[in-house]
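Residues pack. One example:


***
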Amino acid sequence: MAKTAQADQGPRGGESSTGLSSLEEQLIKEGDVAADYLERLLDVLDYDGDLDIDVDAGRAVVSVDGGDDLSKLVGDRGAGLEALQELTRLAVQQVTGARSRLMLDIAGWRVARRVELAELGKRAARDVLNTGEPVRLRPMTPFERKVVHDAVAAVRGVFSESEGEDPRRRVVVFLRR
């Protein structure tokens, strides 16, 4: 199992002697703790995987890539991935004492899903522009809703809101008047 770490190292205030801000150092520590936890889990399951630690948009991101077995961890529509992400966040919180916003990706599922969801958001926005009628999408996870909201926000003339309660919370796209 290989582990690599990266951080966006743009100019920031409050940089330490390592050139990283204290927030970036904290996020890299979260990623390290998460990667250690996931390495142990993969060993128990006898799955092969390479772990990559990154910092993106103010959160630690751990990606696990490698063997074919990894797709089994993603589960139906990412349900297994969401559960593993929550367990990993709890493991990080237990070590650091702070709530983590860590993002976990397995076998590139989130990357591919992000592309699908962005297209769904753009398509819904086009439909609203063409018909003038709101479009209600199926219920989604917070990750999925955020990607759709971002895609809709990039289209002039429409806006989106979430409605309902989890797990039935959904995005609705409206015509901007």
